[in-house]
Structure of 5'-nucleotidase SurE:
Amino acid sequence: MRILLTNDDGIHAPGLALLEQIARTLSDDVWVCAPAEEQSGAGHSLTLHSPVRLREHGDRRYSVTGTPSDSVNLALRKLFAEQMPDLVLSGINSGENLADDITYSGTVSAAMEAALAGIPAIALSQAFRDMGRSFAVAEEWGPKVLKPLMATPMAKRTLVNVNFPACAPDAVRGIRVVRQGFHDYARGSVVEGTDPRGRNYYWFGLEEMEHTLDRGTDLEAVAEKFVAVTPLQLDLTDHAAIGRLAEQFGG
Amino acid sequence: MRILLTNDDGIHAPGLALLEQIARTLSDDVWVCAPAEEQSGAGHSLTLHSPVRLREHGDRRYSVTGTPSDSVNLALRKLFAEQMPDLVLSGINSGENLADDITYSGTVSAAMEAALAGIPAIALSQAFRDMGRSFAVAEEWGPKVLKPLMATPMAKRTLVNVNFPACAPDAVRGIRVVRQGFHDYARGSVVEGTDPRGRNYYWFGLEEMEHTLDRGTDLEAVAEKFVAVTPLQLDLTDHAAIGRLAEQFGG
């Protein structure tokens, strides 16, 4: 099985090194194509106004001077002319990607880019919260969640979002398949400051958000020390609203 | 009614000027907060690694040195302390935002940012194709589509994506409420080149994509010269897959 790894923290990130270590236990044909620099918050963005560079870092290891989506896109078009990957794994992200934050997530977006290309994809993130920046849960539970996922056929244009809880590995209570939750609105903080030349600036922070731990959501599962597995799809249509709106437009 | 306008083509874009002209016929409390520069392809990205600047361009007109999501986010946090907007309009984009391209769209992402904040939002785009860069259809049909939409209550965390077809205004056949379509995969082109210093680069192009004009989709409606109205929502969960995956994990 040919596996392509990518992420949004960049090719030198420790979470990618761990993902590579796990992937090599699952396959002997593992490729890496990741952003040259950290791209957190990049969302599903493509670099259109400037060129990107592809750098070879060794056998089947590449970086791209662009976003996670750029990395997947360029890899699929330039590295795999003959045999496309069977699976794309994105991560392991430094920090959770839960609830509506996934729309900003470069980690999830890289998996979306693969899904759009018809390749099964899994995004993986390690929650930290107050636990320090430890990937210990991802290291122990990564193979336990990936093996069953890889054994399950995925529908076209779908992906899976996995989040490892912030706790000691032996405190993990298991794996839960859950839906995407929603944050109550508090889109981080905005810090106001003055630059060295006396001009005003704003800087977006990422403060802890208030949220309701609805039952059956990724937010609840991770808070309760479960590995959260959320299947995602790419049709954003609000199907329930189509009939109502059609009436409004007379038909 | 307080209306906030934004876009991804930047504060000086002609599509924003047209949107402002239309919005002023619908309300006398219209605000603009848009990116200082063109941000096409920015997707739902936030600027986290550097500060952003807010510049006042006149009465209720502001630009932000960042992405469309930055612009909405900063506007909602800094411009409207006392009374939030009742509606956010994003556009009118130079070029269509249809099918799975909406995940890359700064225009749609700005509307998503508003929807996440609980504010009704509508993204508007003018298809061009071979018709030159004319906003004539948006100019004539904009009010006809906005008035009914503004009269229809929108559920929380939903938005509407509107695309005006590329044709003469008198060739437009009406308004259709349709679902999001999907492109057959052909994620644009990648041009390979050599820079002035002899180094290799890649540049993503946006070539015409092959797609299937499935019935009832935004792609079909615009191809058949209808204004396409697509209600969107922000829950990406693949609900149909939850049960199947839960079985896989013994749950």
User: Anything to note?
Assistant: Residues 136-150 of chain A form the longest helix (15 residues). The longest strand of chain A covers residues 87-94. The domain at 3-181+213-236 of chain A is CATH 3.40.1210.10 (Stationary-phase Survival Protein Sure Homolog; Chain: A,). The CA atoms of residues 242 and 248 of chain A lie 10 Å apart.
